[in-house]
Amino acid sequence: MHHYPEGVDLVDVGPRDGFQSENRVLTTQNKRNVVLGLLNAGLREIQVTSFVNPDRIPQLADAEDLLAVLPFREGVSYLALTLNGKGVERALASPVHRIEVSLSLSDAHSRRNTGMSRERSLSEAEEMLAMCKRAGRSARVSLQCAFGCVLEGPVPLDRVREAVQTLYRAGAEEVVLADTPGVADPPAIDERIAVLRETAPHAAHALHLHDTRGLGLANVLRALQLGVTRFDTAVGGMGGCPFHPGAAGNIPTEDTAFLCSRLGSATGLDLEGVARVTAELETMYAKTFPAKIRSGTHTC
């Protein structure tokens, strides 16, 4: 008999990971409406944008403009992803609540994603965390390709351990293990959660899972059995990675919340509300997203 957490926190990354993966560029007002829909559905942590090179990711070129029109409510935390010091500088000049310092544990992916080697990215991440600390801004770290890389192959556990240890000592308040290409499986969840708890015992822990091989929710289930209570999800199952071939979308927010509800783990989300946001996004993009939970399908 497994015991599951009483409560689970879902961080919706759709407005960043999802929007950057679509060819169509939404207007700032469209993005604001999506964030409002997520807030109204009960989301309290949303990754709203990324401070990255607008020439490479034009879908997120309006980061500052978006943050200028979003409502700032008590109990709500907006996150923005950064890949280098320049991104952190832009984030610090904005009102975003939390800054995500992101780097890849795959050298091949890191060079595609940031133009830096894995070792250089790790060193850069230490300085990025120092910048956040000096400014008194909350920061979390996400380690991309923490479960492996289709460009490079397996990522050794020792590499995960080294990066977690280094960045935890540098001041990371939360460490997120990201399965960027979607290659994780339940045994890998066991191994890496053990590394997280061993090397960053006082930091918050989270998983960022993709569903490339159909194991997204199986990995969530195993993580819940291990007591993990924080997950990055994306409304509708949006997302992927522009610099990682074949990466599918994130685990859907509504599907993950439904699974949690069946296990007795509260997320505080209105599934109907999240499903409505997905329906609106499907109209905007003229496509169907992977989420299985649709309006009215979760009541029995």
Can you describe this structure?
With 300 residues, the protein is an alpha/beta fold. It has a single domain, classed as TIM Barrel (Alpha-Beta Barrel), CATH 3.20.20. The protein is 41% helix and 15% strand. It has helices at 14-20, 28-40, 63-69, 85-92, 107-114, 118-134, 157-169, 186-199, 216-225, 253-262, 271-285; strands spanning 9-12, 45-51, 77-82, 98-104, 138-144, 174-178, 204-208, 230-233. Strands 1-8-7-6-5-4-3-2 form an 8-stranded parallel beta sheet, with helices on both faces. Strand 7 (204-208), helix 9 (216-225) and strand 8 (230-233) form a beta-alpha-beta unit. It is globular and about 45 Å long. The protein starts with 8 loop residues before the first strand and ends in a 15-residue tail after the last helix. The model has no long low-confidence stretch (mean pLDDT 94).
Structure annotation, total helices:
11
CA-CA gap between termini: 24 Å
Task: Kindly state the number of beta strands.
Answer: 8
Q: What is the CATH-assigned architecture? A: Alpha-Beta Barrel
As laid out across the biggest beta sheet, the strand order is 1-8-7-6-5-4-3-2
| Oligomeric assembly | single chain
CATH topology: TIM Barrel
Strand count, sense and barrel status of the largest sheet are: 8 strands, parallel
Uncertain spans: none
> How much beta, percentage-wise?
15-25%
Blueprint (SSEs and pairs):
Blueprint: E1 9-12, H1 14-20, H2 28-40, E2 45-51, H3 63-69, E3 77-82, H4 85-92, E4 98-104, H5 107-114, H6 118-134, E5 138-144, H7 157-169, E6 174-178, H8 186-199, E7 204-208, H9 216-225, E8 230-233, H10 253-262, H11 271-285
Helix pairs in contact: 2-11, 4-6, 7-8, 8-9
